[in-house]
Write a structure and sequence with these properties.
This protein has helices spanning 17-20, 31-42, 59-66, 101-107, 123-130, 134-154, 159-163, 165-169, 193-198, 213-226, 229-234, 247-272, 274-280, 284-291, 296-304, 319-331, and strands at residues 2-5, 24-28, 73-74, 92-98, 180-183, 207-210, 243-246, 313-316. By secondary structure, the protein is an alpha/beta fold.
């Protein structure tokens, strides 16, 4: 869900005043967070009477637009005739993804909470922070970012970071919040029998990553209720060992794994048809095409790792978000779509 914001960005960006007033489009992963932000905006004097609505879009579009850093993306306004630059106001838009505060509350009690920027001394402390208002959460995260920048500037470290490998590995997330996705080791997703019989490549079980902890818990309960009586006794009521990951880390890892898979296929072909490609490399037109490839370091990286299991990952959207999207689709935008009436009767003659 999206909304436009010309005020301070969510979760308290510790930036200069000109960056804080920069026009930003926020993509919310929780419709209730979007509704709360809209209500806060409507209380401003200059926003009274404005038609602010919550719209739905795809996660892929949000990630593509939010990945453009710096000044952002152009809005379509013409550049200034004398300078050739975009106008300072309205020329470009920044896009940001706002993590769901509800899921961050659950992520605080899961393994790997440091991946999404939760560095409290205890899991309960992080969960208590996420139960506060968005402004309070923003001030807390901004304080962590300022503290981390001060430690980097003075080259000081923390004792708890040295003792915990997770804190050392994900220290860059301190002062930021990631988008949490949840995984339970004992929870698998099996494709339909017809699909598995027609496509041998999809016979393996999928590894679901849930955007909602509550959906993960419901899926676990459904699997437990459908199991045999003997197996059900051994299965706990709550899903065990739930681990939280950062969505951006998972997407980046999947992209790297796809590159490795493609590069491995290219290396296998080059070994099989090596003499042929070597002979064709002397041809002026074909030489550059057949010689195109990665560096030695890239080839070693592609060959050194086998399948990582990321090809089995599938994302499960939040059922609350899907239901909200269906409701706003049925409701529409409140505008009538009546076409102009055609002329008839005597006017047709």
């Amino acid at each position: 869900t999206t909304t436009a914001d010309q005020q301070r960005s969510d979760f308290g960006d510790v930036m200069g005043p000109e960056a804080q007033m920069r026009q930003v489009v926020l993509y919310f992963l929780d419709p209730h967070d979007a509704a709360a932000h809209r209500d806060e905006m409507m209380q401003l004097e200059q926003m009274k009477g404005a038609d602010m609505r919550i719209m739905a879009t795809s996660l892929g579009r949000a990630v593509r637009q939010a990945s453009n850093l710096g000044a952002g993306l152009p809005t379509g306004q013409p550049v200034e005739a004398l300078t050739g630059k975009f106008p300072p106001e309205g020329g470009t838009l920044r896009y940001k993804i706002v993590p769901p505060k509800r899921e961050l509350f659950y992520a605080a009690r899961c393994l790997g909470r440091e991946r999404v920027g939760l560095f409290g001394r205890t899991a309960g402390a992080d969960a208590a922070v996420m139960a506060n208002s968005r402004r309070t959460v923003g001030e807390y995260i901004g304080g962590l970012r300022a503290e981390r920048e001060d430690r980097i500037r003075t080259r000081r470290g923390r004792e708890e970071d040295a003792a915990d490998p997770r804190r050392r590995a994900h220290g860059h997330m301190e002062g930021s919040l990631g988008v949490p996705v949840f995984h339970c080791p004992g929870l698998k997703r099996r494709r339909g029998a017809l699909k598995r019989s027609l496509n041998p490549a999809v016979r393996d079980d999928e590894t679901p990553l849930f955007f909602s902890y509550e959906d993960l818990k419901e899926a676990w309960m459904a699997m437990r209720n459908g199991a045999k009586a003997a197996d059900r006794k051994r299965m706990p009521v709550s899903p065990p060992g739930v681990e939280v990951f950062n969505l951006m880390d998972v997407v980046t890892s999947i992209d790297k794994e796809q590159w490795r898979s493609e590069r491995r296929a290219q290396l296998r072909l080059s070994r099989r048809f090596g003499p042929v490609t070597k002979a064709l490399s002397s041809v002026p037109v074909l030489g550059s095409a057949v010689a195109r490839g990665g560096s030695g370091r890239d080839d070693a990286e592609a060959e050194g790792k086998g399948p990582s299991g990321l090809e089995k990952v599938t994302f499960v959207p939040s059922s609350r978000n899907v239901a909200y999207k269906d409701r706003i689709t049925e409701k529409g935008n409140g505008k009538a779509r009546i076409r102009p009436m055609k002329v008839w009767g005597r006017e047709m003659m």
